[in-house]
Design brief:
mainly alpha, 8 helices, 72% helix
Length: 162
């Protein structure tokens, strides 16, 4: 019979990409991303005894991780320390012009998402992770129709920036 610790570690390993995505979206420098990841895992561990299987683990994890990231982001902004967008957030090894263009577009998209407010950034991360409007609504605490409206508006803003 696995212990709570073993179960927790297994679940985190299965869903670690959630943490990576959120950290990349909310922090531009590596040290901050590492600090945020550690803070997210700590908060997940503290909350793990209260996890109920009525929710998908990934939904529960997203909700906690996004709340931690938003708090972390606000704390960083209060410190008035802003690090410029770093090109090393997405690393590719391009071997053709098409890959170079794709890399530029992905870097721009990452930069534009990084500039969104906390809620819009959370919604776009979940949307890009193929979450349904219902799941996004559960995680963010807003209605499904509000999710749909926000996604459409964010898409329009992102398209205009491109």
């Amino acid at each position: 019979m696995p212990t709570d610790r073993e179960t927790f570690v297994k679940r985190i390993q299965e869903n670690k990409n959630i943490i990576f995505k959120i950290c990349n979206a909310y922090c531009s420098n590596k040290d901050d991303r590492d600090d945020l990841a550690q803070e997210i895992v700590l908060n997940l561990w503290k909350s793990f005894p209260r996890f109920t299987p009525t929710y998908k683990f990934s939904t529960w994890m997203y909700r906690i991780a996004l709340n931690v990231a938003i708090s972390f982001y606000r704390k960083e902004m209060r410190a008035i320390r802003f690090d410029a967008y770093s090109e090393d957030l997405i690393v590719f090894s391009p071997d053709s012009d098409e890959k170079v263009e794709t890399e530029k577009n992905l870097n721009l998209l990452q930069q534009f998402i990084f500039e969104l407010n906390e809620l819009d950034k959370s919604i776009m991360l979940l949307y890009l992770d193929d979450k349904s409007y219902k799941e996004i609504a559960e995680i963010t605490g807003i209605s499904e129709s509000n999710v749909a409206t926000k996604i459409n508006r964010i898409k329009i803003r992102l398209k205009s920036k491109f």
